[in-house]
Amino acid sequence: MNPPRSLFDDASHLESIALVDAELAFAEHFYPPAVADDLFATLLAQTHWRQESIQVWGKAHRQPRLTAWHGDDGSAYSYSGIHLQASSWTPTLLRIRRDISAATGHEFNSVLLNLYRDQQDSMGWHSDDEPELGRNPVIASLSLGAMRRFKLKHTTRKEQKTLALDLPGGSLLIMAGDTQHHWQHGIAKQTAPIGPRINLTFRQIIAAKP
Predict the structure, then answer these.
(1) pLDDT category of residue 75 using cuts at 50, 70 and 90
(2) Considering the domain 15-203, what is its CATH architecture?
(3) For residue 86, which of 64, 71, 108 has the smallest C-alpha distance?
């Protein structure tokens, strides 16, 4: 009798993306379309979405997207003047975390969810370099729903062209190594109408030393 097929037996393996001063890997079909659609619908309906205010150049602005933060008991995360205390893991988030950890070999204790409601929602240029993430964090970014264009730009090497990646529903992008030291990433608004997208960025929060 043949062994049961794994979720990762098909086209879900990670492929390295060559980029100076960075470690990137990408699986365009980490989840097959039907599974990705089911996960999207479940998270859209069951997540307690919030619109936070962030500090930009000393002024408060409403984030141009909705967010939620989940993780192990006691895990907290701060960025752009926002201080988040984790909600408990849901069965769906635990399933996704288990799948990503099995495929990558990395453990994650928290996840930030972003809901891009339409083409007007966006993410400004930034690096995931907060102290809670450690020196060389591994960020696992899962996309569900509508495809959006994800861009990375080098912070000092102007000769390096901006990298643009289309992230369809069900795709997984891994950023590791020195990536957050040398590159910023973001998602711009677009003019053409587009449906909602959910992005989950799994990470390992390091507890602060007393």
Answers:
(1) confident
(2) Sandwich (2.60)
(3) 71
